[in-house]
Amino acid sequence: xxxxxxxxxxxxxxxxxxxxxxxxxxxxxxxxxxxxxxxxxxxxxxxxxxxxxxxxxxxxxxxxxxxxxxxxxxxxxxxxxxxxxxxxxxxxxxxxxxxxxxxxxxxxxxxxxxxxxxxxxxxxxxxxxxxxxxxxxxxxxxxxxxxxxxxxxxxxxxxxxxxxxxxxxxxxxxxxxxxxxxxxxxxxxxxxxxxxxxxxxxxxxxxxxxxxxxxxxxxxxxxxxxxxxxxxxxxxxxxxxxxxxxxxxxxxxxxxxxxxxxxxxxxxxxxxxxxxxxxxxxxxxxxxxxxxxxxxxxxxxxxxxxxxxxxxxxxxxxxxxxxxxxxxxxxxxxxxxxxxxxxx
Length: 344
Hints:
Radius of gyration: 23 Å
Number of strands: 12
Order of helices and strands: EEEEHEHEHEHEHEEHEHEHH
């Protein structure tokens, strides 16, 4: 008889094999009772779009245990935020996705703490938020400064009494090949895009732990999963954000604090223009499908309302991740057709 393929937990009907001792085929007498099937509702699987709706159960075989096996054992189920009256801290709020998200939360009746480096532009966004009937606090902020991020979160809590959602959205970009891009640009982007997100998470977590719940949303990019030529410095920071969020999500198991990442494709904002100015004429830039900042903002608001592990505002973006996992060289070829690169 063949031995069982694994000694632990099997997916249902794993090739018709039992997890019982000896691993005999199903139906052979004298091999003891079948292992128990343990039910894990589909709705508990993080990141599923159908989460929260009644679904058929997914059975999991566990050898030698009759105890329930749950992906969320030991803590409360994650719940989203009732947005009317909720307190949302949002970085990078002066333009682009940040501005669109601020207005989207304001339309839901949330109270907003807004931060960005360009205070004049930020005050304009705060005025737009107040015109929609929402309360707003505007504060100049460089997210690369850990203490400044801590002061921003503290100011939001002092003003509104709590913190329900933090959206770590601030970021910058440059273009250019690995050889052409100065090391200083790699370092600066890592300090703003990645460490800025780290600072936001670390400042928000003690507040959310005291409250017993909260939602952390880190705005990454599809290039964090699949980088393109001419975008190494930016893509590396987005990949780091994804890894940070994945680790944080596991560290928060058993709590009612959600850690989510949002992965837009190229967005119709001033971001590309600003990146081009910062790149001193080096080549690179947006490629592939484009989406509006409002579309990304709607996805962020939906994530706050119903947290999901990963959010892809552009419907086909997830397929890029799958295709790259199956055939990286095929995606290399497709990307090279879109962005010609020098050889030799």
